[in-house]
Each structure stands twice: as C-alpha cells, then as structure tokens.
Amino acid sequence: MPEFDLARSEVRELNQALHALQRETNETHWKVRNPGGKHALAVGLDLPITVEIDGHAGYYCAGMNKEATVIVSGNAGVGVAENMMSGEVRVKGDASQSAGATGHGGLLVIEGNASARCGISMKGIDIVVKGSIGPMSAFMAQAGNLVVFGDAGEALGDSIYEARLFVRGKVSGLGADCIEKEMGPEDREALEGVLAKAGMDGEVTPDDFRLYGSARRLYHFNIDNVDAY
Amino acid sequence: MCGIVGLFLKRPELEPELGTHLSRMLATMSARGPDSAGFAVYGSGTAGKVKLTVSAAAAADLEAGLADLGAHLEEPLAPQYHETHAVVSVPEGKLAEARRMVEGDERLSLVGVGTRMELYKEVGLPEKVAERFGLSDMHGTHGVGHTRMATESAVTTRGAHPFSTSLDECLVHNGSLSNHNALRRMLSREGIRFSTENDTEVAAGYLTWRLQQGASLKEALEASLKDLDGFYTFVVGTENGFAVLRDPISCKPAVMAETDDYVAFGSEYRALAGLPGVDKARVFEPKPATVYAWERQ
C-alpha cells in the first residue's frame, strides 16, 4: 500500500501522485500520514481508489471528488468534499463549515458533527451526519438528500429550491420557504437508500426522521406578482 | 482574511514554553495575513508596578525617549529592549504621569499597558516579526497573536493587532466591522480614546467601555453581539485569561483544542497541529454568537 508522509512531503506531491494514476493502476489504496490540518488534501481525484488520511485534514479535503473513496480519521476543515461529483468521503470526526458544499453526487458521511452551512447549495449529493449540523445548513439546496441523526441549527434550508432534508432531532428554526413535509413512499425510499449506502440502515429507523423541504413559493413565478415586473 | 492564534496554559511548568508555541502558531498563520503581525504575552509582573510597552521608529529615539522618561519620573526604568519595542516598569502611582509623558513624546508610541501584559506589533511577515521580537524566548501564562491582511485601514504598525485600550486587555480580530465610525463617535463622547481609524480598535474600545460600566467580560462580549455590526471572530486577552466570540453567522473560521495542559485557539487547525499532545486533544469549533472564556484559577 503506497504511503505518503506529509511531515516529509508537500501536499502538491501527494496530489500529483494521485492525479498521475491510470485507470488500470494496482495502487488503489493509499495512506496519508501526518496531515497536520493541511489544505486541499486528495482533491480532484477521478479514479475508484481509496485514500485514507490518518489525522485531521484542513480546508477543501477531497474537493471535486469523482469515484474515489476518501476517509479522514480525524476532523475535516472548511468545505470537505465540496463540489463532489461521485464516490464517497467519510469523516470519522467533526466537519467544519460548508461540508459537501455544491456537491453534485456521491456520498458524504460525517460521523461526528458538522458546523454551519452543511450542504450549502447541494446539487445532488447525499450527506449523512451522525451528529448534529450547525446553522444555515442546506442554504439554497437544489437536489440530493441531507440526513441528520442529531439536531439542526438555525435557518435550516433557507431559500431551498429542492432537496430532501431528513432530521431526527430538534430543528432550531427553518429558513425562508423551508417547511416540514409529510414523508411519502418515495421520500422514505430515498432515506432508506441513503442509509443503506452509508452502511447505517440497521442503526436507525426511517420513522424517527422528519422531512423538510421547499414550499416552492420563493422561486416560482406567481401571476399575482406580474405588476412587479 | 487575517489569522488569529491564542494559547492559554493550565500548568505553570509549561510557562517557559509559551513563546515557542505561540511563535510557531503565528508563523503557520502567515498565509492568512502576511502584511503585519502582533502578539500579547502575559508574563511575570511585579507587585505595585505596571508595565508599559513602548515603541519607536529608531532605536536611538527609543533609548533617548526612555532615558528622558526615567529622568522625569525619577525612576530607574531598566528597559527590556525587543527590537523596535521596549518594556519598562513604573510604580502604579506614577502610571498616569508616565502615560502622559509617552503620549506627549513625538519619538515614542505607547503600545500597551498592563500589570503582566506585554504587547508587540510590527509590519512584516509574521514569522519575521516573531523572530525580531524574540517571541520564542518569552515566558508567560497565556498569549494571543494576530497575522493581518489589511482591509479596513492602512498597513501600518499602529494598524496591526492586538489592540489594547485598557490595562491588561487586548483584542485580536478576524473580520471587519461596518458600524465602527458611528460607534467610535459614541465611545469618544463617553471618554474612550482612540489612536487609529481602525475598526478593531473600536471593538476593543467598546469592550473597555462596557467593562468600565461594570460588565463582566462575558457580559461585555454578549452586549457586543447586539452593538457591533459586521463579521468577526474575536479573541480577547485579560490579566487572568482569554475569551473567544464569533459573530452570529460564524463568518470567520475558528478552531480550538483543549487538553489537561492548555487551551489553544487557531483560525485554522494547521496552527494547532504542532502543539504537544494535540492528537489527543478535544478539538472543536466554537459556536456562533457564544462566548467562551477561560480563566486562571
């Protein structure tokens, strides 16, 4: 298994080595030691490899990820898995702000808590947080599923377009145009699917979650407002 | 952008290492604020005396200015020189006169006053600034530091953080305030004095004003949530501890690590990564609009 020690090498060397891999590579499992909170670790991966980061990661870890699995054994800084396209990113500790921001696809699992703006502008990513999420999460969310085992902070789903927000605990407050919705069969199926994908289907029951989503009043044209244009 | 670091030691035997850690933390945050840097160290104090940190543009001015000060006060000042800065101790009873003298001397500027606080700031790359002042050799119970990327006012020594407007109190700030001009006018009327156009100095002055009115540090910070408009992560140093506050939307980053030995603050985890035992520390992000404070027992 190839190992990279960031106490001795630069982040750029790590990322270049990962980017140089070809699809048929046998080096499919990498270990990164001494990450020391450095930024932009394992960003822009586009092969089905696994990268284990042994410690705390800095900003934008596993950003733009495609197909790869990135595991952070500690905490992750701002914007972990931002703009992820596919693959999986798993954070064993807590995640800082804007986890999974603008993610188009793939799965982000945060085993601890996520702070503010988790899933901001999410565009199809699935996010599972075993702890709680901070304020202003799923701001302007467009597609995908956000599943939270704990509580959600202020202004959840503010100005949300679409996307499903499943929260098991308490919600401090809903943002503009975000409402609680009844969980239909499709929603339940989506929740079960995400939990299964995250390997957590046995841990919780979908009945414990409540669903929040868009009231669709904010972004649809309303004929009563025609005079305003 | 700007970077903030803070370190509060829980065990006296670690005090000789304060400067070494703080200096490394500051150097790591150079990328967040490469134009100037500053730090406050809470070191030893002498009963009945107050320390003044004084700076001058030229070493000769500093020496001459302090010689005149000593002669005027009829006190042996025994200045401790650190590059462009010097620390002198004066008896409490002569503080007002010493302050008046330093502020009236064109060659000198008063950087900070405290029973234990020493304050250093200078333009330049943070790593170099820490090196020039010899931060790594400084001892103390706690300290805060700042690396600045100027937005609201010019890159000058006086515009560098920390800002101190009161005895043993200092404030470092990441962010920018939008109502600082109106607040400065209000606080000036209330008798708080300012020496720059900087927004952070207003925040420091605001806390001083609240504390003068009898608020605790926690109450003063809580009141600032209502009265200060803008983005901020603040770290405040006081004689016996330090406090942290982030604005209600947590616009600026903050991460903390706590062990049995210390509490450390950094704008990014990178700043904390070199601390002993940090891999076993409780690492967390302070919540928005919540005051965190640590005090010496």
UniProtKB/TrEMBL annotation, chain B:
Pfam families: GATase_6. Its EC number is 2.4.2.-. It is an enzyme of class 2 (transferase). Keywords: Glutamine amidotransferase, Glycosyltransferase, Transferase. It comes from the Bacteria. Residues 2-297 form the Glutamine amidotransferase type-2 domain. GO terms for molecular function: glycosyltransferase activity. This is Glutamine amidotransferase protein GlxB.
